[in-house]
Amino acid sequence: MPASQTPPLSVxxxxxxxxxxxxxxxxxxxxxxxxxxxGAAVGLVGASGSGKSxxxxxxxxxxxxTRGSIGFGDVRVERLRAGRLRRFHSxxxxxxxxxxxxxxxxxxxxxxxxxxxxxxxxxxxxDATRRMHELLETVGLTPxxxxxxxxxxxxxxxxxxxxxxxxxxxxxxxxxxADEPVSMLDVSLRAGVLxxxxxxxxxxGLSLLYITHDLLSARVVTDEILVLNQxxxxxxxxxxxxxxxxxxxxxxxxxxxxxNPYAAAGESTR
Length: 270
Fold this sequence. Notes:
This protein is of the alpha/beta class. It has helices at about 50-60, 80-90, 110-120, 125-140, 145-150, 155-170, 185-205, 215-220, 240-245, 250-255; strands at about 10-20, 25-35, 40-45, 65-70, 75, 90-95, 175-180, 205-210, 225-230, 230-240.
């Protein structure tokens, strides 16, 4: 299915509880509902422990909700098993926050990026090689031949994250879940990766769920923001509006916790 026909994601009254020590239960996600329209980008923002990574695991099918449903087109994600879940994972790819842990240290860049094309799309080695070079060029690792034979330890953090993104694109996904994709990168590298995600979304019509604790970074790549606090959505709205006019005190605290790079230019987020 072309990216322009990406099925929207729908999260409907999702609850996730875990049993803690003893008989108590902890609610990590509490009655969360939202949708991502085709080609849209939604930011899921909250501090550590707010439930955003739990929600990412539910959306990608690695865990199942206690209550509620998650739809991807006409697919109920929480009902998927085995082969159908594998097919779903070719359509919904996740970019993790740790580019160091996300790559096998023994596999070259070429192998890492080629395998999804071969496994999910059934490409021949020759076709997968051509696609690998195209994808490396797409994510800014140029010339591609210079990077194909490298191992992860031979790359910078920003280069590794670009390899992770190239791998995610290899099976032609319709939705990318980016879970804190720049939090472990140097400040100097973050802007480049964020701009890459924004460009890929625009050029390929990808839908994007961008998960972060940093409200200001969401400004670069998202249309809409949902703010999570203790598993609940406490604020949602247009990204610019939420940044400039936060309504919830928790949102204000998140904004105050990060430096505002726009203040030097006389631009305020609020």
